[in-house]
Every structure is written in C-alpha cells, then in structure tokens.
C-alpha cells in the first residue's frame, strides 16, 4: 500500500487495539512496512489518539526520514522486517492477561482451541530484558520465525503479512491468555486433532 493509505490503516489499527484494551495510554508500539522503510508509532503518545501525520517514517537502516521521535522499540521492529521479507506489520502491546501469564511464571498454551493453534502456532517466550535496549532487540530477533511472542513482564508481540493479520494475532493471543487463566490445567486439543488442522 502507498504511504498515505498505510498511515490511515496504521492509525485505525492503533485505535482498534486501544478500544479492545490491548494497549493502554502510551504503551506499546506498532508499525507497517512501506516501499522505502516503515511507519512506526511515535514515542510516548497515546495509541488511541494518533492521527496519520503523527506516525514516524524510518528507513530500514534506522534513519528517521520524517516525523518526530520514533518508538524506543524501533530496533526490534526493524529486526523482524529484515529477518522476514513476508512480514509487513508488527504489533507490540501490553495486554493484561498476557502479562499476567508471564508474571505467574507460566508459558502460554495456544492449543486449547483450534483458532489458537491455527492463528498463533508456537508462541515464543522472550525473557525479561530492559525495554529500549539492544539486548531486547537481540532477544526478539532470536525468535523472528514466531508469529507471536510473549515478553516476560513486558507484553506481547505479533507479526503478520498485513496489519489485519498482526492485529488478529494480538487479539487471539490475549484471548488465549485469558482462557488459560480461566481454565487452569485444562487439556490441550489432542495431537490427532492438531494433525487434522495441519499444525503439527
């Protein structure tokens, strides 16, 4: 999509994430790939109140092309785009139930429902690392092949071929986290069913 359309689409996605309580106030950061780099949310701004011109344009080498100050997490967005030519959107939020799972020391199970298994696959876990550091960029890059990640005591991250796909994965990730908290030690779908779904 062209830059004008991408700006409108990313702002709309940010508002949906905010309206769905997947991110709060200035938390999280979202981006979309464009022809000559990426558009990413600005640092320290409420994601539900952004306008298209607020987004920051950044080249693939990290140079700010236009706009204000990009998110301090721009580095791991760029790392995922570089690692995955098919990734065109990255969403990082601080969903309550996802964070609760990691604070409890649990790993997220995505095979309780067929939707979780199909949409998320293996959910990677990124250990706690100080936000905004190169160490966090490196930790995320280690799991660049994962559609979704939980970041211990920090939040969640999804990537997709489109903004819609990245959004859907974030929404499903939080749904699965909530389901796990509600259902405790319920059994996953059996391997035979996962094989039918084509996720084994």
Overview of this protein structure:
The structure is a single chain. The protein is an alpha+beta fold. It is built from seven helices and eight strands; from the N terminus they run αββββαβααβαββαα. It has helices spanning 3-19, 74-83, 96-103, 114-120, 134-141, 163-183, 191-197, and strands at residues 29-34, 37-40, 56-58, 64-66, 89-93, 123-126, 148-151, 155-160. Strands 4-3-2-1-5-8-7-6 form an eight-stranded mixed β-sheet, sandwiched between helices. A hairpin with a 2-residue loop joins β1 (29-34) and β2 (37-40). The longest helix is centred in the C-terminal third of the chain and has 21 residues, at 163-183. The protein is globular. The model has no long low-confidence stretch (mean pLDDT 95).
SSE blueprint:
Elements: H1 3-19, E1 29-34, E2 37-40, E3 56-58, E4 64-66, H2 74-83, E5 89-93, H3 96-103, H4 114-120, E6 123-126, H5 134-141, E7 148-151, E8 155-160, H6 163-183, H7 191-197
